[in-house]
Amino acid sequence: MSPEAAVSVPGKAILLGEHAAVYGYPALVTAVDLRLTVTARVTGDGRITVDGSSEFRTGAMSAAEAMGFSGGAEAPGDRLAYLACGTALAHADAPGGTGLALRIASDIPPGAGLGSSAALSVGVVAAVFTALGLRVAAGTIAEVAKRVEARQHGRPSGVDVEAVLRGGTLWCRRTAEGTLACAPLSTAQAGLTRLELYHTGAPAESTGDMVASVGLLREREPRRVNAALASIEAATLAARDALAAGLDADRALLPLMARAEAALEALEVVPADVARAIRAIEAQGGAAKVSGAGGRAAGGGLVLVLPAPGGAATVPSQWKRLHARLGAPGLLEDVAA
Ligand code: PMV
């Protein structure tokens, strides 16, 4: 039997810079130690199976078809797994009869702004390459996973993929050439220890919907949206400096998180009940912000809370606390016989 590739990938949380990152502004993003694991084994039977059930025949699949593949499986996670698998096979120029058996397990709640789709894309792409016996650079995994993400939601900034692939806390910014450059911010850890993560409910809207709605708002009200994006950029730059200095970062982050949250509310990506709960946290002397794409009607996905210095934050009872270390290791790979 051919060897089994096993990989694990963390989730991610955007500390600052979501939505603005889509327009080339910088973002601070950290890997969250809730992990997704993928195992892949080459079967040679021309089929891709996910968890032994749904399947897709690879026999007649061209690279173009792999990129366009969007049928055959019921669950959205499976669909993305097939797309990632097909895209990796096409990139590797694997023969048509190459079959793969994938198994996927995840602790990352989907639709929670925790990068579950980026983790799935990176995990499947990396596992497929490893199962095929290919040693590829991290940059190639990122490039292929970003292609998969682009099919998911049109205009991804790429910060999710970089965060889950590389791990740690990253400072990401689009270069003049239009590529995303990310650098580790190794001193950030101290400033993140008091941050709390809450899942406020899965938004009805997808990330793609939220990115598109900000785009529409920008066409209708460019002044308001551009001012909000500039405010997010200023908060993100100041947070990077505070974290890089490693000094009293909790206190330094408080006003910056509040500023970014106000800008996200101006972008209309924070549901009213989530905004109300965040006002209450601010009234207690803390700060909180939506992390990720956010939502409109109900469920804001992930919210980061920084309790008042020396205090604790009171949050709505339906918010679910997620206990996970920030700045987690990125992609981990293993091959077993
Ligand atoms: O929904 P999430 O957590 O994957 O975050 C998306 C972040 C956005 O800035 C809204 C989009 C992007 O591609 O950066």
Task: Count the domains.
Answer: 2
Summed up, the helix count is 10
> What gyration radius follows from the Cα positions, in whole Å?
20 Å
Provide the CATH architecture of the largest domain: 2-Layer Sandwich
CATH topology of the largest domain: Ribosomal Protein S5, domain 2
Quick check: average pLDDT? 88
Report the sheet with the most strands, covering strand number, pairing sense and barrel closure: 8 strands, mixed
The level of helicity is 25-40%
User: What shape does the CA trace take?
Assistant: globular
Level-1 CATH class name of the largest domain: Alpha Beta
Structural class by helix and strand composition: alpha+beta
SSE topology:
Layout: E1 4-16, E2 27-42, E3 47-50, E4 55-57, H1 63-68, H2 76-91, E5 100-106, H3 116-131, H4 138-153, H5 159-166, E6 169-174, E7 180-184, H6 189-192, E8 196-199, H7 207-220, H8 222-245, H9 249-266, H10 272-283, E9 287-291, E10 302-306, E11 320-322, E12 332-336
Parallel strand pairs: 3-5
Antiparallel strand pairs: 1-2, 1-12, 2-5, 2-6, 3-4, 6-7, 8-10, 8-11, 9-10
(3R)-3-hydroxy-3-methyl-5-(phosphonooxy)pentanoic acid binds at residues 14, 18-19, 21-22, 113, 115, 156-157, 159-160, 207, 211, 292-293.
